Amino acid sequence: DDFNTLRNSVWQHASTLGGGGNFEFEWYTNNRSNSFVRDGTLYLQPTLTADAIGEANVENGYTMDLWGGDPASLCTGNAFFGCERTSGNGQIINPIQSAQIRTVNSVNFKYGRVEVRAKLPQGDWIWPAIWMLPVNGEYGKWPASGEIDIMESRGNLNYPAEFGGGVNTIGSTLHWGPSFDFNR
């Protein structure tokens, strides 16, 4: 994609508080503060949830409900309490908003090549990633049908090398196996 525009027919936004299997702290939104195109470049940019709902609500007494609302913001992933969460009693609303875009309903291929040119962000708690996931779970639930992590990195500038390094380290992974506990 040349990203002259953000083509909604190709790219769909995730909308979830779930954090995936890594229990990430971001809330994926369909908000132009978090994803936009300018001068042929796609920007995925984090913002603070407290700026939207207030610091006190992030920590106590607020319910974030992604079940309703406009169609573009409906929850896309309920795993790990992704569609509704209430702050309080040690549970917080995800403090960072960001964007995850995907082609789950628009692009798939059996053979080919993927080229990506990306500038990765720096900052604590940031984990940029580019993944390829199956359209259909032909062989069962994750990881049985596979996953290709083209790139994952840490945004931490000073992350110790003995724990995988920081911004100067990337990784790629193939996930497969009959079940989560046998992921290879």
UniProtKB/TrEMBL annotation:
Keyword Cell membrane among UniProt keywords: no
GO annotation, biological process: carbohydrate metabolic process
Segments passing through the bilayer: none
InterPro entries named among the record's database cross-references: Beta-glucanase-like, ConA-like_dom_sf, Glycosyl_Hydrlase_16
GH16 domain residues: 1-184
Flavoprotein as UniProt keyword: no
Source organism superkingdom: Eukaryota
A Pfam family recorded for this sequence: GH16_XgeA
One GO MF term: hydrolase activity, hydrolyzing O-glycosyl compounds
Protein name stated in the entry: Concanavalin A-like lectin/glucanase domain-containing protein
Organism: Blyttiomyces helicus
Native organism taxonomy: Eukaryota, Fungi, Fungi incertae sedis, Chytridiomycota, Chytridiomycota incertae sedis
